[in-house]
Amino acid sequence: MKKLVQSILIIGVAIQFTSCEKALLDAPVTDKKEVFNYLWKSVDEKYSFFELKNIDWDAIHSRFEPGISNAMTDKQFFDTLAVMLDLLQDGHTGITSPFDDHKNSGVFSRGPENLNVRLIADHYSNGWGHQKGSLRHIPLADGQIGYVYYGDFSDIVTDSDMDYILNEYKDTKGLIIDIRGNTGGSADNIFKLAKRFAKNRTLVFRSVLKNGPEHNNFTEPTETWLEPAANIYTGKVCVLTNRKVFSAASVFTLTMRELPNVTVVGDTTGGGLGLPIGTELPNGWQVHFSGSQLFTPDGICYEMGIPPDVQVDMNKDDENKGIDSIIEKAIKVILE
Amino acid sequence: MLGLCSTLMASSQTDSVPRSINLVLGGALNKTSVNETLNTSLSYSGTTPGFSVDFNATTRKMYFSLRNTYSGGYISPYKATRDMNNRMQSLYVNVNASTQWLLYSKPENKLFTYLGPMISGKLGARIKDSEVGNSGLTYNLALSAGVAAKVDKYVTIDHFFSRPIKEQNFKLGFEISCPLLSKVWAQSYAGMPETLVQENGGFIEKNCNYTGYFSNYTNIQMDLSLAYILRNKNAIGISYLFDFSSINPKVNPSKTMNQMVGLKLHYNFK
Lengths: 336, 270
Prior knowledge:
The complex is a heterodimer.
Chain A: H1 2-17, H2 21-24, H3 32-46, H4 50-53, H5 57-64, H6 74-86, E1 94-96, E2 101-103, H7 117-123, E3 130-132, E4 135-140, E5 145-149, H8 159-168, E6 174-178, H9 188-194, E7 202-209, E8 222-226, E9 236-241, H10 248-256, E10 262-266, E11 276-280, E12 286-290, E13 292-295, E14 310-311, H11 316-320, H12 325-335
Parallel strand pairs in A: 5-6, 6-9, 9-10, 10-14
Antiparallel strand pairs in A: 1-2, 1-12, 3-4, 4-5, 7-8, 7-13, 11-12
Helix pairs in contact in A: 9-10
Chain B: H1 2-11, E1 20-36, E2 44-58, E3 62-77, E4 88-106, E5 111-128, E6 137-156, E7 159-160, E8 163-164, E9 169-185, E10 209-212, E11 217-229, E12 235-247, E13 254-268
Antiparallel strand pairs in B: 1-2, 1-13, 2-3, 3-4, 4-5, 5-6, 6-9, 7-8, 9-10, 9-11, 11-12, 12-13
């Protein structure tokens, strides 16, 4: 009996103090070639837009891999990986290390700025106008139109915010929802806003996720339907966009353009219709890139930007006169 | 459970098994070790605080146990350099219930062994302060049915170092439980659910689950405990819990190990 008790005690103590985790866990990897290949393979198997963007990822491997060696400094290695990831032309791509944080600029720079916040403050809203929650708002065109600026989808929009805005402008001919410069945030806010403008249940987009290592391995499309809210706005709506409208803001644009009373005015958005997934490299650095695709009910993926219904750029002469060409066009669309 | 045990206790008329109905409260430190392939290619490890609320009852021929163990805190990359600030929160929940029958005993040596079915629910979740929100969570959840076995040995010693002890016992316990059939929820290939961009969409993919057998969901839980039984039949004990899980869905396999050392107070209702 004594032996049994002793054995149990010995086993217990041994389990605790001989570190079992050594057999289970791996130490961080410092070999740069191994880290490079891990990153390349992760992107190869999980990035969602190779075919849409016609990117030859194997060729990119052949181009970069020979130059990777442990003789590189961490900074040189980081910069090399960042350059490689930039070739994905995707604003949802980035790499983070303890000493640097690199984000792909995507397609933001492919068009004019098309937003002058100071001009709006000086010539339209007399300062910053009114604010309810994260929504700035002012009446325009002698009160015939309500103007709402929403600059960040990370800022929560509540039902009470929307009730207030809709009540404030219930007798107007139209609403302008300005999301220029909005680079995205939470998907929940997309629906909080958009369902206030839907008269009927509407199929707004479909989505697929990567589900295998081949470039064309995706799940079956999941349909996303917009359910109308109890309290909705039935007038005309213009959504103002520019190239900096990205990610959740682009998804909002994708959603709103399916509604019959909505016109998208301004410039093509910055896209970002693949939700980002992240991974950690074996040396502890972190990367993220797109792992899904969203497309219209007709099957079009606007990853590189959603074109507006009415294309308008800010006119320099107008801007000098204190006129926002895009807002003015939206006013015309609503009043015509 | 209390009522059932009281009924069974009433029917037991032998002193061969020291009978008890215990509420056991414990505080513990948990060493969590995680090796997963989704979102983190590093191995993570760390010691987090935890607690347990257990109920157990021993009758003439049976043993009942309901155990609830929780721990949570931050874990860091295994053998990470100082500048690697990749820590993440870890949550561990382990609920385990078993009914076991007296299988073999040697009353003269106060040795009792039990065997019986068990059910368990285990959750391991890792939450990373990630800039990319939908890559900041990994989890595995398993609901299982299996077998459990237990050995109890009561030891009477008359001296503790040089100090004499009267009418008091130590109880040494060892329990092992192992699932045979499980339902396991893990993450999708991409690590995010298909409903993420829908209204009220969350990060949990309910449809991403599989039926686990020993080969694709291996879980071994062992408990070692030593309790010092006081004169009033309550007890103070120390315990060591070892819980290893190897989760092998079609994609994103992971291995986790929790080793929990705790101090427990046993309140005996009997």
